[in-house]
Amino acid sequence: MSSPTTTPTHKLTPLATLTPPSNSRTWQSAPHPSLPIVATACSDRSVRVYSLTSFTLLHSITGGHKRSVRTVSWKPNTRGQSVLATGSFDSSAGIWRREENGGGREEDFTGRRIGGAEDSDNEQDDADDYQFSCILDGHESEIKCLAWSPSGQYLATCSRDKSVWIWEELEDDNFETVAVLQEHDGDVKSVAWHPAEDLLVSTSYDDTVRLYKEDADDWVQVSMIDGHAKTVWWAEFEGSGMAGRDWRKDATSSSTSDASQQQRLEYMQELERSGPRLATCSDDCTVRIWRRKAKEGDDNASNKTGVPSIIRSAAIDEEWYQDAVLPQVHERAIYSVSWSRKTGMIVSAGSDGKVIVYKERWREQAGGDEMDGVEMDVDGAQAGGLTEWVVVAELFSGHDVFEINHVCWAKRADKGRRSEDEEVVLTTGDDGEVRVWVLDQA
């Protein structure tokens, strides 16, 4: 574990506040997977869609829910249209669609208001607005979070009723409930999907994290993580592959010994085998990283035994163990954590109004090889021993005196961007505002 006293090397600089802000609490903001827009869930029963090019409101989506909209998620891999799922305190989820006639070109999102209230008499503008497609009913209480799987085949929802539902879209506006998972003993706060597999994670008021997979046409729990001491508010997976891990570039730097270089390369190979890690945050004021224990010969397990894989249900179980605890800087509950797909940095925010950015780096050992004195994990990999997480930026009072409910990375799209893949940080708060921040070298 790294020390929280590390001197920050970066700073978060305010770039913009999305305008106009909501007059009520905002819960979550979801950047579109391919367009320079972001959707924000609001307590006034609306969803606001803003331009990340001009930072102005493009759409105010209303009329689908009877209570606060708590969560939003864009469907990935859609062509010619944007599909948005919304979850509400009224226990329902809604599906919204909009035809993207402009093809998603950047000039279509420069602040021209499309289909807003002031244009409601214009039939063409109405056609350009988001259309309410269908409603998904079944939960008995507030929906706290929802998320599309990477393929767009499944939509997961979770609720205060302690359940996780998985819906499959058979065709447009025709959804089937394929699973109702009731493993948690308390409110389910969030759901998220693995970036490369149909593996679902949920977090809960019962202090646990649970993972699910499909097994013989039935969805089952494959792992349970109970490392947090209080409510687990959010979980997010790391991106696939080694891309986004800046520290990997220094694995074979000339400043390290041949033995250390070999250890680093072996460590990176082990990470590749175990796949994307999982970040979680909690009421216990910690952000933790979890890693899946790689199984020997996963691909050929059934061939080695000669037993048909269809009856080897136990083989679907997974073991996840703690890889790291990030430096503890937050003083109150951490509501949200986000893992950059570009840099591998993590950002967190929560009740104390702080926004913290963490970076992983190779650990420097004083004298001897890097592995000397490092405790090995059960599978021979050392959990966090070769790398450490340090705080690179710390922002106080990100939304003045208000709590920050959600934080995420988004691709920068305004004219001031310095590169095609530059990122910004979006924070969403109780003050009704979504603020945009740039991460600069201090």
The name of the CATH superfamily reads YVTN repeat-like/Quinoprotein amine dehydrogenase
User: How many whole angstroms does the radius of gyration measure?
Assistant: 22 Å
Helical stretch tally: 3
* Largest sheet properties: 4 strands, antiparallel
Q: Based on the coordinates given, report the CATH architecture.
A: 7 Propeller
Q: What count of domains describes the coordinates?
A: 1
CATH class: Mainly Beta
Structure report:
By secondary structure, the chain is mainly β. The chain has a single domain, classed as Methylamine Dehydrogenase, Chain H (7 Propeller). The chain has 3 helices and 28 strands. The protein has helices at residues 123-128, 258-274, 301-305, and strands spanning 10-17, 26-31, 37-42, 47-51, 57-61, 69-74, 81-88, 93-99, 131-136, 143-148, 154-159, 164-171, 174-181, 188-193, 200-204, 209-215, 218-225, 232-237, 278-282, 287-292, 320-325, 334-339, 346-350, 355-362, 387-395, 404-411, 423-429, 434-441. The strands form 7 sheets. The protein has a 4-stranded antiparallel sheet, with no helix packed on it. The longest helix has 17 residues, at 258-274. It starts with 9 loop residues before the first strand and ends with a strand.
Short description:
The chain has 442 residues and is mainly beta. It contains three helices and 28 strands.
What would the keywords be for this entry?
single chain, 442 residues, mainly beta, Methylamine Dehydrogenase, Chain H, four-stranded antiparallel beta sheet, 3 helices, 28 strands
